[in-house]
Amino acid sequence: MNIQIFGKTKCFDTKKAERYFKERKIKYQLIDINRYGLSKGEYASVKAAIGGLQNLINEKSKEYESQYIQYTSDQAEIESRLLENPAMFKTPIVRNGKKATIGYQPDIWEEWSKQ
Fold first, then answer.
1. CA–CA separation, 91 and 94 (whole Å)
2. What is the Cα–Cα distance from 89 to 68, expressed in whole angstroms?
3. What is the C-alpha to C-alpha distance for residues 57 and 22, in angstroms, rounded to an integer?
4. Count of CA atoms in the C-beta half-sphere (13 A) of 112
5. Which residues of the chain have a pLDDT value below 50?
6. Looking at the DSSP assignment, which residues form a beta bridge with residue 101?
7. C-alpha angle 90/95/101, rounded to 5°?
8. Share above pLDDT 90 across residues of the chain, in percent, rounded to a whole number
9. Residue 105: what are its φ and ψ, rounded to 5°?
């Protein structure tokens, strides 16, 4: 398994995801999404794996409100703003190759480890 955790340092679910992989001695790479964001390739892979753009956006974030995303219907504009303001992503985003999850999903991660 090649696990990447994109998360925020103060996010409780990100810490839980880290602990999940540590306890099972599964190597992972933690990436601070606020600092480094997602590349366009990583973003496209995650978006495809989780079923679309809307599942990636944290509608409760301050950045979501300040960017007025809820009033924008242009998909390309929303994606551009999301990549420029990575604090709008729901976290943690956990990637395993082409597979990905959002939030704390231990049942899915358990399936990954069995494969």
1. 8
2. 15
3. 27
4. 19
5. none
6. 94
7. 50
8. 59
9. -130, 65
